[in-house]
């Protein structure tokens, strides 16, 4: 079969370029426009990258129309049901599920990297008592770059990529938990390698020097599930940031820090914190219609947090899993459910409202994740830190894929310049006021 192509013609010059259409294993084909500038002297203008594929990737596939999310071909529903976070991290990074032996070795190898250099503990002291933990996380993870930096190494060829992955995944819980401990005035807890990944994280967050701490297994399972659901999500804003930072052949901890900074915003990972703030403000199911009207009012910048997604236009498969998990957790911990009830009412009213139907706005993963974190007694400002901890597995898998990509090039977008055309310099005495 001949190669499918798309012909782009410049109507002003009559010149054409025939661009190959590239087919992946699943999903939307892409037009290869790399010679557009060379042959037609034109750039592609796509604000928000709504129609732009930025790389080849074999890690995560998502279909927004069908609500499909797969990591290395494994559907998220199956991973959520049968897997664990560290196994999903293995899958993202290695491309295959591990054998039993590989899994034991992988868990052990992550545990060998849970400690950080002792000097890193001093970085926290520089933060204000009321710092946002995401600013601390970005700063301290960025600082890790200085502990693993060799100015002579080529990150593409000389650096052990798997060792980098184990370091990032091993250290993130330690660094994240310390943000909370510092802000709470509690002593840091060192990693306990007898414990599993999530158990160890909870111990570093919640144990007291005076007491033996055993997290509730239901809580461990719920947190592990959230970590699985947040582990990777194709070329979203923070992942693209990690790749762009990495494309300058940068230290991987610096790239992850850049990803953390991008994740923080309320349009991205910061939505989980914003959702709970919003649900608390709504406070009662009877107030829901007022907030739905506010979200529809174009003169108001208010949006329903946890609703809408750039890619998912039918449902977010992670939201479906998490909604059920949230319900089960609140039941099994016998917790009061007022915010969950507000959330259910908001979902019910918004889903039958013409505004939300027309724009295909559905609850996303973060609509419910904050409620689970709250039930687990994780403070609200730490919600996005949880997301970052889990997403670091995806970021580092994507960073490795970039480093090993034969088409590796520095990322360098262009622009549509709309500023002043050439203007000669006017000496200050001759400028009109
Ligand atoms: N509430 C009210 N209206 C909305 C919302 C919302 N949450 N989201 C989108 N819209 C409207 C928007 O005003 C626009 O309307 P119109 O066509 O009349 O101008 C239309 O829907 C399309 O919106 P958009 O901003 O062009 O969509 P986008 O793809 O650029 O943005 C989004 C996607 C997730 C940033 C956006 O839906 C949003 O801000 N949602 C709330 C924040 C949120 O929950 N973020 C978490 C995303 S999932 C976790 C993650 O991936 O990090």
Quick structural gist:
With 433 residues, the chain is mainly alpha-helical. The longest helix is centred in the middle third of the chain and has 23 residues.
Beta content: 5-15%
- Coarse structural class: mainly alpha
- In total, the number of strands is 6
Low-confidence stretches: none
What is the arithmetic mean of pLDDT? 95
Helix segment tally: 17
Radius of gyration, Cα only, in angstroms?
24 Å
Strand order of the largest sheet: 1-2-3
Shape: globular
Question: Which cofactors or ions or other ligands sit in this model?
Answer: carboxymethyl coenzyme *A
The termini sit apart by 68 Å
Roughly how much helix do the residues carry, as a percent range?
40-55%
Largest sheet: 3 strands, antiparallel
Which sequence of SSEs, written as H and E, runs from N to C?
A: EEEHEEEHHHHHHHHHHHHHHHH
Structure explained in plain terms:
The chain is mainly α. It is 48% helix and 6% strand. Strand 1 (5-9) and strand 2 form a beta hairpin. It starts with a strand and ends in a 30-residue tail after the last helix. Carboxymethyl coenzyme *A binds next to helix 16. Residues 48, 233, 236, 267-269, 271, 295, 303-310, 359, 361, 364-366 line the site of carboxymethyl coenzyme *A.
